[in-house]
Amino acid sequence: MNRARHKHAIAVKKILICLAVLTLFQETTAAADKDLGDRARGALKKATTFFLSISTNGGYAGIYSLDLKKRYGEAIYEPAKLSEIWVQPPGTPSVGQCYLRAFRLTEDSLYLKAARNAGRALAWGQSWWGGWDHRAEVADLKPDSRKPARKETRCTFDDNITQGALDFLIDLDRFIEEEWLSRAIRLGLNHMIKSQFENGAWPQWYPLRGGYHDCYTFNDKAINDCIRVMLNAYEAYGNKEYLSSALRGGDFIILSQFEAPQAGWAQQYSHEMKPAWARAFEPPGVCSLVTARNINTLVDLYLYTRDEKYLEPVPAALSWLESSMIGENLWARLYEPGTNKPIYGDTDGKVHFTFEEISQERRRGYNWRAGFEVPGARNYYNQVKSMGADEYLAERAKPLTEAERRQKIERLVPQAEEIIALLDEKGRWVRNDLIQSSVFVRNFNTLCEYLELSAERE
């Protein structure tokens, strides 16, 4: 009996020791989380303060020299004037979205003010037509300005430019109510509706400017991003005209699919619905990347509408992708219509059938062979098809389990530590002796993600 009691006492003691160790571990982890969280918040504020100091009337260039005397757009071959801001991501709209994310996290008015200033810069740089070009002139924006004097500048749907600006302004509109903002959003959405062709497609540029810019354009997600923005606008404002525009965009995706066995899509189409040339090195062809992205958009529209017609084109598209692999999870970007041979382009404006025969400059300057988002599109469709819309959406809406959250936090901790360590005394993330909006956006969002996950644990 005494021996049994002794064993029981030892077992109880072991349990108490384990509980004490677990409690100590949890307390240590919580303290470490709080310390990193405090430093992450400090880094966000310090980086924001610096970025505000280099803004141009609230907006931003893409790249700055360290002495701030030179600024550029997407790359250093695109110089920007001191009075210009960059709209193309990761320019002003992307930076503005960072500020909104930080405001949601912290409710610090510094971030909302910064986001408002970015929104005003975009509104003042908006074209008279309602869209945006890669860059925008904001010299006329003064602190007491109430109504922009818009110019008839070109507007593009390339590279998520007009769409990304509207996404940000619509999100900003959820936090502030000002007439200049409402006007800019209405003008932009009306521009998108006006620029949409009767068949549901969008061009790369509007007003039309000739050449391949007038084509029905999937390249760089032009049509896909337009559909997303119109759905976002419908969610925000309930205007059925926006929903109708999005659905007509989906109908164009269905309309423009090639017949089996090449049941994919081209990067751009002529107004006669033929795959079209774009730049000299972009020959007409069936495109694996566009096909993957169109599959994603079709599934998105199915989840939104529950209309099976948006899923019907997908099996044939996946079958074509499956038959067109050139390696394990590897595709050519473009395939010749009819023969399905991989094709490549160069500055000579000719179609080439081997990668090795094109110039080194074009081999490096364009993504000719890759996974092209195909595995993700395939998995997305298969999951939705097998689960059904309701179950899939319910599963997607579930919060992370504690184990999943902890795993994500552990993955982010070394990244957050490195990002904080790289922030210099002025509040800059310097890379290659340049200050880059892309680096700011990436680092800022990583710190926000860490803080969001840590807040969910509390």
The N- and C-terminal alpha carbons lie at a distance of 46 Å
Beta content: 5-15%
Given the C-alpha coordinates, what overall shape results? globular
Largest sheet: 5 strands, antiparallel
Helix content: 40-55%
Return the average pLDDT rounded to an integer.
94
SSE pattern: HEEEHHEHHEHHEEEHHEEEEHEHHHEEH
Quickly count the helices.
14
| Unreliable stretches covering 5 or more consecutive residues | 16-30
Number of distinct beta strands:
15
Radius of gyration: 26 Å
In spatial order, strands of the major sheet run 6-8-10-11-12
Structural class: alpha+beta
How would you summarize the topology of this molecule?
Elements: H1 2-53, E1 63-65, E2 71-72, E3 84-86, H2 92-106, H3 109-125, E4 135-137, H4 161-172, H5 179-195, E5 216-217, H6 222-237, H7 240-255, E6 265-266, E7 268-269, E8 286-287, H8 288-305, H9 314-323, E9 331-332, E10 334-335, E11 342-345, E12 351-352, H10 360-365, E13 369-370, H11 374-387, H12 389-397, H13 402-422, E14 430-431, E15 434-436, H14 437-457
Antiparallel strand pairs: 1-2, 1-15, 3-4, 5-7, 6-8, 8-10, 9-13, 10-11, 11-12, 14-15
Helix pairs in contact: 1-13, 1-14, 2-3, 2-4, 2-14, 3-4, 4-5, 4-6, 6-7, 8-9, 8-11, 11-12, 13-14
